[in-house]
Amino acid sequence: MKRIILSAMILLMMSCSTEEEVNNCGCYQIQEIKIDKRVWTGGAYMYTTVWIESNESIFMEGCYTVDEASFMTRQVSDVERWFLRCNN
Protein backbone atom coordinates (compact mmCIF):
# COMPACT_ATOMS: atom_id res chain seq x y z
CA MET A 1 0.00 0.00 0.00
CA LYS A 2 2.87 2.38 0.83
CA ARG A 3 4.46 1.70 -2.55
CA ILE A 4 1.22 2.55 -4.37
CA ILE A 5 0.88 5.84 -2.48
CA LEU A 6 4.54 6.69 -3.06
CA SER A 7 4.23 5.86 -6.78
CA ALA A 8 1.08 7.95 -7.05
CA MET A 9 2.79 10.92 -5.37
CA ILE A 10 5.81 10.70 -7.69
CA LEU A 11 3.55 10.43 -10.75
CA LEU A 12 1.51 13.43 -9.60
CA MET A 13 4.64 15.53 -9.02
CA MET A 14 6.03 14.64 -12.46
CA SER A 15 2.77 15.48 -14.23
CA CYS A 16 2.57 18.87 -12.49
CA SER A 17 6.13 19.80 -13.35
CA THR A 18 5.72 18.98 -17.07
CA GLU A 19 2.45 20.91 -17.26
CA GLU A 20 4.07 23.96 -15.67
CA GLU A 21 7.01 23.64 -18.06
CA VAL A 22 4.72 23.58 -21.11
CA ASN A 23 2.73 26.63 -19.99
CA ASN A 24 5.79 28.67 -19.02
CA CYS A 25 8.51 28.44 -21.67
CA GLY A 26 10.23 31.67 -20.69
CA CYS A 27 9.55 33.74 -23.81
CA TYR A 28 10.43 37.43 -23.77
CA GLN A 29 10.13 40.29 -26.21
CA ILE A 30 13.47 42.10 -26.29
CA GLN A 31 13.83 45.70 -27.46
CA GLU A 32 16.52 46.62 -29.97
CA ILE A 33 17.46 50.16 -30.88
CA LYS A 34 19.40 51.35 -33.91
CA ILE A 35 22.48 53.43 -33.24
CA ASP A 36 25.05 55.08 -35.46
CA LYS A 37 28.60 53.89 -34.80
CA ARG A 38 31.70 55.85 -35.66
CA VAL A 39 34.95 53.92 -35.99
CA TRP A 40 38.38 55.43 -36.63
CA THR A 41 40.08 53.43 -39.39
CA GLY A 42 43.45 55.16 -39.23
CA GLY A 43 42.83 57.73 -41.95
CA ALA A 44 39.16 58.57 -41.66
CA TYR A 45 36.04 57.77 -39.69
CA MET A 46 33.77 54.99 -40.92
CA TYR A 47 30.09 55.36 -40.03
CA THR A 48 27.83 52.32 -39.67
CA THR A 49 24.37 51.71 -38.28
CA VAL A 50 23.85 48.70 -35.99
CA TRP A 51 21.03 47.24 -33.87
CA ILE A 52 21.83 46.75 -30.18
CA GLU A 53 19.72 45.26 -27.39
CA SER A 54 18.47 47.67 -24.77
CA ASN A 55 17.61 46.63 -21.21
CA GLU A 56 13.87 46.59 -21.93
CA SER A 57 12.02 43.25 -22.07
CA ILE A 58 8.43 42.07 -21.78
CA PHE A 59 7.39 38.57 -20.60
CA MET A 60 5.23 36.72 -23.15
CA GLU A 61 2.65 34.04 -22.34
CA GLY A 62 2.77 30.82 -24.32
CA CYS A 63 5.37 28.71 -26.03
CA TYR A 64 6.85 29.31 -29.46
CA THR A 65 9.24 27.30 -31.58
CA VAL A 66 12.40 28.79 -33.09
CA ASP A 67 10.69 28.96 -36.50
CA GLU A 68 7.66 30.80 -35.07
CA ALA A 69 9.85 33.20 -33.09
CA SER A 70 11.83 34.18 -36.19
CA PHE A 71 8.65 35.69 -37.70
CA MET A 72 7.66 37.57 -34.53
CA THR A 73 9.70 40.76 -34.90
CA ARG A 74 7.72 43.96 -34.42
CA GLN A 75 9.15 47.10 -36.05
CA VAL A 76 7.90 50.08 -34.02
CA SER A 77 9.80 52.84 -35.79
CA ASP A 78 12.93 53.38 -37.85
CA VAL A 79 15.07 53.16 -34.70
CA GLU A 80 13.16 50.68 -32.50
CA ARG A 81 12.06 47.06 -32.91
CA TRP A 82 11.05 44.18 -30.63
CA PHE A 83 11.91 40.52 -31.24
CA LEU A 84 10.98 37.29 -29.47
CA ARG A 85 13.48 35.10 -27.59
CA CYS A 86 12.46 31.84 -25.88
CA ASN A 87 14.42 29.69 -23.45
CA ASN A 88 13.11 26.34 -24.73
Global mean pLDDT = 80
Morphology call: elongated
The value of Rg in angstroms is 22 Å
Termini separation: 38 Å
Q: What is this structure, in a nutshell?
A:
This protein is of the alpha+beta class and 88 residues long. It contains two helices and four strands.
Description of the structure:
With 88 residues, the protein is α+β, with helices and mostly antiparallel strands. It is built from two helices and four strands, in the order H-E-E-H-E-E. It has a four-stranded antiparallel beta sheet with strand order 2-1-4-3. The longest helix is centred in the N-terminal third of the chain and has 22 residues, at 2-23. The two termini are 38 Å apart. The model is unreliable at 16-22 (pLDDT under 50).
Summary keywords:
single chain; four-stranded antiparallel β-sheet; 88 residues; 4 strands; alpha+beta
Strand and helix layout:
Layout: H1 2-23, E1 27-40, E2 45-60, H2 66-70, E3 74-77, E4 80-86
